[in-house]
Amino acid sequence: MNFLEEELAYLQEHHLYRWLNRMDDSQAARTVINGKQSILLSSNNYLGLTEHPELKAAARQAVTRWGTGAGGSRLTTGNLRLHEELENTIARFKRTEAAIVFNTGYMANLGAITALAGKNDLILSDELNHASIIDGCRLSRAEIKIFPHKDTRALEKLLQQAQGYRRRLIVTDGVFSMDGDLAPLPRLVELAEKYRALLMVDDAHATGVLGYRGAGTADHFNLEGKIHIQMGTLSKAVGSAGGYIAGSRKLIDYLRNKARSFIFSTALPPAVIAAATTAFRVIEENPQIRENLWANARYLRSGLKQMGYSILAEESPIIPIFIGDAGKTMKMAEKLFTLGVFAPGIRPPTVPPGTSRIRVTVMATHTREDLDRALSAFMQAGKELGII
User: Are residues 277 and 291 in the same domain?
Assistant: First the structure.
């Protein structure tokens, strides 16, 4: 077992070692991490809904009525009325015929990709897709071709050479989680139609955030009804837990019968389902929450740019601050934490070597005072480390 010690030593030496930071309070704009009061600038709780009183009340009521667990898989004893109500809610929200809920977004991607593609099929995947997409592609046993990030010309060349396969599946993130940029969905839809390919979009960081209704990238680009497979999570802007696939009724029926991560998992507990269902109503009825999120993102991004920080993208509330070196990135994150701001460093293998960054995310519930204090910390830390 010496290899364990050797590998851990290597990770520490190259600033790639990972550890757990302990949350001592909730996912609020200001919280307690490792015993220290901190402004939270790294949560995917974009709309602050994990603290919303209506979601909390729904979760409590569900426990009282339905108990603490589902008791079985959805195909045995675990299919509560609550699950079907949530799936109907998601389908209405995404404007699709149907939806199916998985225990996590990771399981949704694995389940859908491995059910839809196999031997004699081809998957075309953006090089910066999420790890769950990458793993789903590998497990599918389909042939995989990676196209350069958002390079639709390269993708079209691959499609032109791909007519001998049984199925062709294009997979992309809607919002790329570490860069904060958007997929070129209008062109991807055109290519999928032209070459008779399926198009799957991972909307984990877009649901509740992007679009006129907050319904994601299809809503944002006015492409509702044009994307065959829409994946999303319930654990980010929705403020609960779980994942889903939305699409045609036939697609959802197929996944219910073929997606192993759905078939062989105990269903999500009632409190989680009830909170998620309530969250979609809150999102639809309160567009001001989403407007607050975008206003906060614009304010913080503008302040960071004025200081001289290099911001990689400006299309979403994700604000990736480019540092480059992994060691310097971690020193930056540590300094920020001592100044009361929690914004962890992102290093390989999450991002390519030489592109380490501080990934900042704001929430709708951050106040202007929170953001000004954060900007002050970034000014001090950046100057002390020679980054700005």
Answer: no
Residue pair 81/62 in contact by the 8 Å Cβ criterion = no
Model confidence, pTM? 0.95
Domain assignment present for residue 216? The answer is yes
Instruction: Say which of 205, 331, 335, 366 is annotated catalytic.
Output: 205
Query: Does 22 share its domain with 65?
Result: no
Same domain, 241 and 167: yes
Structural domain boundaries enclosing 314: 18-46+287-384
Residue 366 designated active-site: no
Q: Which spans in the chain are helix H?
A: 2-13, 53-66, 81-94, 105-116, 131-140, 152-160, 185-194, 217-220, 249-258, 260-263, 270-285, 287-307, 326-338, 368-384
Local structure of 38: helix, strand or coil = strand
Same domain? 114 vs 223: yes
**CATH code, 182:** 3.40.640.10
Catalytic pick from 236, 331, 335, 366? 236
Q: How far apart are CA 155 and CA 201, in angstroms?
A: 15
Q: How far apart are alpha carbons 365 and 290 in whole angstroms?
A: 10
Choose the final residue of a domain: 285, 305, 327.
285
Residue 143 belongs to a domain: yes
Selecting among 125, 177, 261, 356, the annotated active-site residue is: 177
**Catalytic (active site) residue 305:** no
The phi and psi torsions of 184 (rounded to 5 degrees) equal -80, 70
User: Is 220 in the active site?
Assistant: no
Q: Which of 268, 285, 302 is the last residue of a domain?
A: 285
Q: What is the pLDDT along the chain (388 residues), one digit of tens a residue?
A: 789 988 999 988 888 888 899 989 999 999 999 999 999 999 999 999 999 999 999 999 999 999 999 999 999 999 999 999 999 999 999 999 999 999 999 999 999 999 999 999 999 999 999 999 999 999 999 999 999 999 999 999 999 999 889 999 999 999 999 999 999 999 999 999 999 999 999 999 999 999 999 999 999 999 999 999 999 999 999 999 999 999 999 999 999 999 999 999 999 999 999 999 999 999 999 999 999 999 999 999 999 999 999 998 899 999 999 999 999 999 999 999 999 999 999 999 999 999 999 999 999 999 999 999 999 999 999 999 999 9
